Amino acid sequence: MHNEWFRALPSIDEVQKHENYEVLKSEGLDEVRLTNWLREEVERMRNHIRTGKFSVQPEKQALIDDILHRLTARVLTWQKPRLEQVINATGTVLHTNLGRARLSDEAAEAAKEAGRRYSTIEYNKETGERGSRQKVVEDRLTTLTGAESAMVVNNNAAAVYFVLQAFASGRKVIVSRGELVEIGGSFRVSSIMEESGAQLVEVGTTNKTHLYDYERALNEETAMVMKVHTSNFYMQGFTQSVSSETIQEMNGREDILLFEDLGSGVMYDFSKEHIGQEPTVQQAVKSGADLITFSGDKLLGGPQAGIIAGKKSLIDQLKKHQLARVLRVDKMTFAALDETLKAYISEETAKALPAVRDVIEPADVVYERALLLADKLQAKHYKTEVYPVKSQVGGGTMPEVELNSFGVCVAKESVTAAELERTIRLQSDPAVIARIQDGWVCLDLRTIALDEIEDAAAAFP
Ligand SMILES: *Cc1c(COP(=O)(O)O)cnc(C)c1O
């Protein structure tokens, strides 16, 4: 260590006199905060000298420049949003890591306005008194699903927990072994059951569960039979499960509930487009479950939410339960959900919801966007290939479904696919999340909207 090297270290004052510091001050940061950050940067430089990071004696001006450079980076980093926008080039429509369903413009706008303004979230205009936030979308939910009553909680995991806690805590719940699913690692039927205090009674085998399996397990300690939609895997071959109708006939007793966790809340019948065999919420209600739960941000195409629909007497009990407050949903969510549900009044408007649209969009429409992107990248001297790919619905829904789609695979000489993928992910704003395949970086256009193509192309330097 050379003691005289510390003399190159500028004082706080000296850095503050620099014109670039004046520029930073005009960014609108609190001066005390800025000075604190500056102090930390000078301190950091002192440490560099102390620990021998310099091989020759540093010059004061160079240190000032360096300190200001780092300080500027810090200010800019602060100004950037922490939740960054990305272009989803994976083709997975409901990508849980990337935020699942994209909201419609109307729903996004409604959420924004609900955030900016006061609203009737818990206010009854007629009486001028306190109202219930559960009233906001209840009429839409009952109209669309055919259920007697409905309510909204934080997400579907919360909805499942709530139903089990409220109606089966300390009692037994019968579930088929074929339906003891784990979703995304964080949601396991058996674990959520344990948390709720309900006792799981497994019946049947992985591939087959018969009516007599349920019948044998039924006793005076049984609170409910739970059916779980096996959203994220598809069992084929020698399989059997028991329908809700049959279970309800067996139940016979009023006090044994049939609860169905539907997972994805499909209100648009995708089977009409020959996509999957997902039961719709309407069908589930019709088949006789006392309570059903589903997500707001999977195939429904709305914000994160858990919807509970079913018998009025049961939903009324849930609304009065202490947990209703714990699992309460924000006004912005209600506003977005409201606009999303509104769209389900006609097939045409439902099909325009981004999540629904992206799943049913024909491959030839995706192809047009692929050509457009390929053109732009060729103009930037990239090698491109437009070729057919299979997209996934994602979000643990319709795992057996492969959507015919088109992708653009991109390569450049002297750059590896890994480097290129890293560049478009880290050096671009918005980042592009793509896949590497056989030495190419591949972008699936199913999840890239027309107005994102410019940005997707710009991500390639
Ligand atoms: C996705 C899913 C859940 C969890 O729903 P979230 O909205 O993610 O909380 C629960 N059960 C099933 C069957 C699911 O598919």
Structure description:
By secondary structure, the chain is of the alpha/beta class. The strands form five sheets. Strands 4-12-11-10-9-5-8 form a seven-stranded mixed β-sheet, sandwiched between helices. Strands 13-14-17-16 form a four-stranded antiparallel β-sheet. A two-stranded parallel sheet has the order 1-15. It starts with 11 loop residues before the first helix and ends with a helix. It is 41% helix and 17% strand. α3 packs across α4 and α5 packs antiparallel against α14 (331-342). It folds into three domains: 3-78, no CATH class; 86-95 and 357-458, Aspartate Aminotransferase, domain 1, CATH 3.90.1150; 105-352, Type I PLP-dependent aspartate aminotransferase-like (Major domain) (Aspartate Aminotransferase, domain 2), CATH 3.40.640.
Summarize the structure.
Pfam families: SelA. The chain is α/β, with parallel strands linked by helices and 461 residues long.
Characterize the overall form: globular
Number of strands: 17
Low-confidence stretches: none
Number of helices: 19
Q: Tell me what portion of residues adopts beta-strand conformation.
A: 15-25%
How is the biggest beta sheet arranged? Answer: 7 strands, mixed
CATH structural class of the largest domain: Alpha Beta
Distance between the termini: 43 Å
Structural class estimated from helices and strands: alpha/beta
CATH topology of the largest domain: Aspartate Aminotransferase, domain 2
